[in-house]
Amino acid sequence: GENVEQHPSTLSVQEGDSAVIKCTYSDSASNYFPWYKQELGKRPQLIIDIRSNVGEKKDQRIAVTLNKTAKHFSLHITETQPEDSAVYFCAATKAAGNKLTFGGGTRVLVKP
Amino acid sequence: GAVVSQHPSRVICKSGTSVKIECRSLDFQATTMFWYRQFPKKSLMLMATSNEGSKATYEQGVEKDKFLINHASLTLSTLTVTSAHPEDSSFYICSALTTSTDTQYFGPGTRLTVL
């Protein structure tokens, strides 16, 4: 089955700096890659997703890049703000709508 | 749009009792819902896939007789933890799939504590 590795497990950045989280996946058939943000005790919230027919997608301060050949994808947060502090999870699946395999999560702390 | 609710948000029960958790899609129909378990500071672990009108598909290592899933309508799936024990204490989260975008939206979670 699919295996998703996520790095780093923790990330501390200064407010205004950029944060980058990287994930690798094992199943070359995977073609849908969502990212979720989870605040303490709250539900995971979808912040951005990318499908395998594109290499990059951007939404304001958040962007995701996908390298299908290398089987990795990354989340980029620019101009970080304290409210970006949370745990971020990447996930992968063979088709949007199928069960997701999650990475281990990255705890991001943005220091004011 | 795409709101998912869960009830209860928090439950404390005695060992040996059964607990039912409801997951509802409030503004869309979901033929597929997923149930996850999350331990403190850990990732989400998929327990089962719930399909409306059919039996749930359980992940390897998840006891189907222990975690009963019923998806009786297009907006409601329930997870019943039978004969709960302290090791079943966890954060249980459901998600519902929107067929329009094939996106999973998560419920707020249920924190189960078994004494």
Name the features:
heterodimer; A: 112 residues; mainly beta; 6-stranded mixed β-sheet; 5-stranded antiparallel β-sheet; B: 115 residues; 4-stranded antiparallel β-sheet; 55% strand; globular
Could you give a short description of this structure?
Chain A has 112 residues and is an all-beta fold. Chain A is 0% helix and 54% strand.
Can you lay out the helices and strands and say which pair or pack?
The complex is a heterodimer of chains A (112) and B (115).
Chain A: E1 4-7, E2 10-14, E3 19-25, E4 32-38, E5 45-51, E6 56-59, E7 62-67, E8 72-77, E9 86-92, E10 101-102, E11 106-111
Parallel strand pairs in A: 2-11
Antiparallel strand pairs in A: 1-3, 3-8, 4-5, 4-9, 6-7, 7-8, 9-10, 9-11
Chain B: E1 4-7, E2 10-13, E3 19-25, E4 32-38, E5 44-51, E6 57-58, E7 67-73, E8 76-81, E9 90-98, E10 103-106, E11 110-114
Parallel strand pairs in B: 2-11
Antiparallel strand pairs in B: 1-3, 3-8, 4-5, 4-9, 5-6, 7-8, 9-10, 9-11
Describe the largest sheet of chain B.
7 strands, mixed
Quaternary state of this entry equals heterodimer
Characterize the overall form of chain B: globular
Radius of gyration of chain B: 13 Å
Order of H and E elements of chain A: EEEEEEEEEEE
**Could you give a short account of the major beta sheet of chain A?**
6 strands, mixed
The total strand number of chain A stands at: 11
Indicate the percent of residues in helices of chain B: under 10%
Describe the structure.
The complex is a heterodimer of chains A (112) and B (115). With 112 residues, chain A is mostly beta strands. Chain A is built from no helices and 11 strands. In chain A, strands 2, 4, 5, 9, 10 and 11 form a 6-stranded mixed beta sheet that branches. By secondary structure, chain B is an all-beta fold. Chain B is 0% helix and 55% strand. Chain B is built from no helices and 11 strands. Chain B is globular, with a radius of gyration of 13 Å. The interface between A and B is medium-sized, with 22 and 22 residues.
